[in-house]
Amino acid sequence: MSTRSASPRPHHRGRFAPSPTGPLHFGSLVAAVASHCDARAAGGQWLLRIEDVDRPRSRPGAEAAILATLEHYGFTWDGTVARQSERDECYAAAFERLRASGHVYECACSRRELATAPMGPGGERVYPGTCRNGVPADRRDRPARAWRVRVGSAHIAFDDRLQGPQTQELGRDVGDFVVRRADGLYAYQLAVVVDDALQGITHVVRGADLLPSTPRQIHLQGLLGYAPLSYLHVPVAVNAAGEKLSKQTGAAALPKDPLPALAAAWRLLGQRLPKKADAPACPAEFWARAITTWDPARLPPAAESRASPPFASTGRGAV
């Protein structure tokens, strides 16, 4: 277990939350480096959470491999590792609060039926509200029911530390969204909001691909009475085809030698690299310099940035 024993200032608590669906890749590393440096440079804490709420997608051994890679790359985190799979009772309690206050309702729509819904600006289907006032008669015999949160006329506005002012009309751009799936598992949007509240997170640093999800999470924070968070969405690493590096697009696992990958992530984040003669000889030296020189003002504002070989891809579908 890797921990940090220093006593940080309580005003800044960040986190890194990988999913155990495969090994860490360069895209994950970029987000981890940014969040780690942002928290440590502020004298704050950096927590680690395994986002395994979607149990069918979790792979045996992936969590252990992720933790081993983070330690090998010199990351340090505070406290014990949190796991979503151990928090069902917490999610259930939050869900019951939403249900008791009338903020959620059952939905019996199938994926096929929702495939014809209009597309929102974020590339997702906008829920048309079919079950908002009760499940239609022709769908009441379906036993599988998801639960959606009512968004009404909610207008969400916030300032991202890099991307600037953001606004979203939830009803127009997203529609009522799922907080508990038809298979009984709690949806990511609810789980991550509860997780951040439970862990006392104050600053979220993550990839810009998650920027469209943030208004939904802010909406849930308001409904549940949670404190607002600070957000910083950094550029996402993409391959030569312009696809986000992920397991689905064949992102290569991180190499055994940490320094080239750390330097490449640092470069993608627009940070100052030392002269070749002063290059760090080990991860500890990299982190000592990175934390003291971290400058969010140097982050490129683009939502995407090209990853260079050998960190881009091993071919679609590889893990």
Structure description:
There is one protein chain. The chain has 9 helices and 12 strands. The chain is α/β, with parallel strands linked by helices. The protein has 2 domains: 1-86 and 235-319, HUPs (Rossmann fold), CATH 3.40.50; 88-190, HUPs (Rossmann fold), CATH 3.40.50.620. A 3-stranded parallel sheet has the order 1-2-3, with helices on one face. Helix 1 crosses helix 8 (258-268), helix 1 crosses helix 9 (283-293) and helix 6 (188-198) crosses helix 7.
In a nutshell, what does this entry contain?
The chain is α/β, with parallel strands linked by helices and 319 residues long. It contains 9 helices and 12 strands. Helix 1 packs across helix 8 (258-268) and helix 6 packs across helix 7 (214-224).
Total helix count?
A: 9
The helix/strand order is EHEHEHEHEEEHEHEHEEHHE
Question: Spans of 5+ residues with little confidence (pLDDT < 50)?
Answer: 1-9, 315-319
Tell me the Rg in angstroms.
20 Å
In the residues, how many domains can be counted?
2
Percent strand = 15-25%
So, CATH architecture of the largest domain?
Answer: 3-Layer(aba) Sandwich
User: Under the CATH scheme, which class of the largest domain?
Assistant: Alpha Beta
- Helical content band: 25-40%
CATH superfamily of the largest domain: HUPs
Number of strands: 12
Q: What strand order characterises the main sheet?
A: 1-2-3
What structural class is derived from the secondary structure elements? Answer: alpha/beta
CATH domain topology of the largest domain: Rossmann fold
The dominant shape is: elongated
